[in-house]
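Review form for a predicted model. The reviewer records the input and the model, then writes brief findings.
Reviewer: anonymous (R2)
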Amino acid sequence: MLFWNFLANAQKVFSPYPFHFDHIFNLGNFYHPGFDHRDKKDYIQIGYNDFNPLSNTIASYYLNGKFSFGKTAIKSHRLGAFIINDREGEFLGRLKMMAQYSFVLPLGPQFSWHNGIGLGVLNHTLKSNDIIGGESSFTFDSDLGTFLRWKNHYFGVSVNQLTNRRQYFLNGTFSIPRYYSMYLGTSLKLTEGLVLLMDGYARTGSILYNKYAVSFRVDIQKHITTGINIKSANGFMPLLGIRDIRVGDHSFSCLFSYSVPTSKIILSGSGNFEMQLEYKFR
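Model under review:
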């Protein structure tokens, strides 16, 4: 029983997204409902993050996508959704599901304003075992965000976990406090067939929510990508992959990473392997 109480207390004011994932800047709509890839194409992503590939007891899976509809000369609309399933040991699990709507307003040549809202649920589950019976708890979640994109640059802000909910689980109360995020990024053509992409993210809220991440990546001949992410308290993540390989009229990408911890205290999200598959339409 002390073990389960420890797990409950350890998570009372902590939500790991997006720092849970190495490919943080390919998963922008996990934390900003209006976020789009630089090429603004429709896509589906699946991913797997394993803290310990040998034991396979602490792992996350996700399914993520975004699609356009109702495009006009004045604005375009986007619908998106994601599902994240965390397995934290043999008995404890967490599921986050969110649907998103966003619209884009053109403000000028290569200048656009993106706005979005996300609504979803967060679920914690304890599987029954010989010591304790099973339990499941749901609560609502919501995000709101806006950002500007000009040529190869973008800047945005969002309010996450907007409803500031509480969740009752394992004889305790989880606080899911509101926090605020900021995003910025740019890309620079170095030579023919060589593009440098730079992204940054920071968030603030409770003391556990003050985090940042930066990324430096190079796209080679549009189809090979490599680089490094640096995340506060989690170390650095070398990245390697192939991207935008044509499959008929669409394209396919496959990305890999490994998180190298820099702290003697190993945190969730460090020392892990991650793989992401992406399929883009049109």
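Findings: The first strand starts at residue 43 and ends at 50.
Further findings: Helices lie at 2-10.
Recommendation: see findings above.
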